[in-house]
Each structure stands twice: as structure tokens, then as C-alpha cells.
């Protein structure tokens, strides 16, 4: 939730500020990038990111919560259908503020606030973290087959992996049975030879 700020509001009163931020958010979602003052952009960022988080949820209640703020159904539809799928894998930081300099008339600091719609590139893991992750994986591989079959339901395996494991288990038990039968046959032959 956006943190309340002390001091004068952007538009004079709290209702005017709420409407001003809603209009800025609607313009941001429509044009993907807007140019405004630094103060307005910094106040807009938490509001816009909260609305995008609602859009990522995508259910009816979230849509109604966003409609309560923005009010324009076409903008809300664009937010839910176009913007939310682009930021689905991003865990935050949906907006970017870039400083542009100062406005000519009143020397107000101007910025460009835009949506970050590029796909997320996962950071490469450090050598220490990858080595630590490999140690538990090796320990799991060294465990007997019975323990891996009783693994918790959280570990998902594909059907092909389960079938291959079952085939290997049956093949190993069949080969053990065949080995026992050949050993028994060899013992019987040896016993017959000794009896003669």
C-alpha cells in the first residue's frame, strides 16, 4: 500500500490528489510512458505498481478493485489483457523513472515514467550457491530407490520419469530372479554330479 505522506497534497485536497494519480495511472497504462514532474512520478509509482499487482492476479475481485481506482473500462481491460501477461514473471519494479532535466517555464524537475515490459533475465548464480545446491542434489541421488518413491507430493515428476523408474525396478527384480534361478540350477547340477 502506498505510504501516506505528510504536508500538502499534489492537487490541493486528498480527493483531488486521488483523482490526479488515477488519471496519471490511466495515462501510463494507455501510453506505456508519460512525461511528468518528479514529485508526481514518485507519488504515482506505488499506485501504478499496486494496480499492476492486482492485474497479475487477474480474478474478478482484482478487476473490480482496479476499476474502483481508474474507472475507465478500456484502460482496465488493456491493463489486464496486455500489460499483466508481459510482467507475469517479474516480482516487482514494474515502472522506471528517468530524469529529463528541468522544465523551461518554472524550472520544475521533469522525469519520464515508463512501464518495464522487457522479459526478466534470471541472474546467474554464484559459484558458492550453485555448489551448495549441488550437494543436496547428490545426496538425493545416492538415496535408495525405496526412499525416492516415498518422496513428498511437492516434488513433481513427469509421467515418463515415473514409468522409466518402474521399468528399471521391474528389470532389476527380474534380473535378480533370473540370477537366483540360474544359481539354483547350478547348485542342482553340482549336487547331481556329486551324487554320481
Give your account of this protein's structure.
- By secondary structure, this protein is mainly alpha-helical.
- Helix content is 61%, strand content 10%.
- It contains 7 helices and 3 strands.
- Strands 1-3-2 form a 3-stranded antiparallel sheet.
- Helix 1 packs across helix 2 and helix 2 (38-57) runs antiparallel to helix 3 (60-69).
- The longest helix is centred in the last third of the chain and has 37 residues, at 159-195.
- The termini are far apart.
- 13% of the residues are buried.
Low-pLDDT segments, ≥5 res = none
In angstroms, what is the radius of gyration?
A: 32 Å
Between the first and last Cα atoms, what is the distance in angstroms?
A: 94 Å
**Element order, helices and strands?**
HEHHHEEHHH
Structural class: mainly alpha
Please give the order of strands in the largest beta sheet.
1-3-2
Strand content: 5-15%
User: What is the overall shape?
Assistant: elongated
Mean pLDDT: 81
Number of strands: 3
Helicity, as a percent range: 55-70%
For the biggest sheet, the summary is: 3 strands, antiparallel
Question: What is the number of helical segments per DSSP (H or I, 4+ residues)?
Answer: 7
